[in-house]
Amino acid sequence: MKNKKLEDSFKKMMSKSLLEISDRNFEDKVMEKVDFIQSLKQKRSKNLKLSWIFLAISAVLFPVGYISVFKSLNYEFINTMGANYQSSETIFAPAFILIFAIIILLQIDNLLRLTYRTTII
Amino acid sequence: MDDIYIRQVLQGNINSYRHLVEKYKNMVFTIARNITKADLVAEEVAQDTFLKAFQNLKGFKKKAKFSTWLYKIAVNESLRRVRKKSLKFEKLDDVKMKDEVLHMESDSIEQLHAEEQKEMIFNILNKLHASESLVLRLYYLEEMNIKEISKITGFSPSNVKVLLYRARKNFAILVNKSMSFIH
Hints:
A: 4 helices
């Protein structure tokens, strides 16, 4: 019985322990920042879409461009540069593929991080 | 009601978020003030809490109440500001929860003016350890249960019970002291 009275006293006293924010414009300030975040989110979403599209395009165009440029090079031109065409192909092609793969993977990693990041600021 | 506003915000009606800010701003501020012990810092924490909640609203699982989720963010943001990893729970060996009847001069407090009462309660809660006053406020002011308080503070339910017991005891002691000083 006495404990019940004490519990009621605690409840009554604690109901007076709520503090109030003195800043009357608190909601406005928060909403202003919320609007700003929302506009950034929309811009980011648009930029991300473009980034994915360009990444996909470059992932296709670069190898195609490389093959067509390399194949169109004149054998004699390469030989005059003091290099052997066969050895150029065996050295440059794997090196190019490796560098290209690393760049593409790094870009995919960055874009995935940005796509799944929830916070902006 | 919160669910409706949350759904509206997620559907793109950002202005509905204002209702949530209006409803919870004072409690979020109270939690932040409780931990940081500074008004200005607490206001900044309250702002950051609402911004963080807004940005993570999609990830809010409706298993818990929105208030529980929001207050958890407020606690974490406050701790980040005071550069602490978690709330402190001092484990005292001699703390045994007895079903003892605490005595508190609550009737005498009623005789004070409303503003004096508020100030006194604020000062007493300020003197208590941050985790103790936080648990008291969540339990009595927000009428949260042990499980919800446990989620917000990160303490185990049994630790919350110990903390609540200790907080009640210390609060009563401080009330009695203050009242004897006034009389």
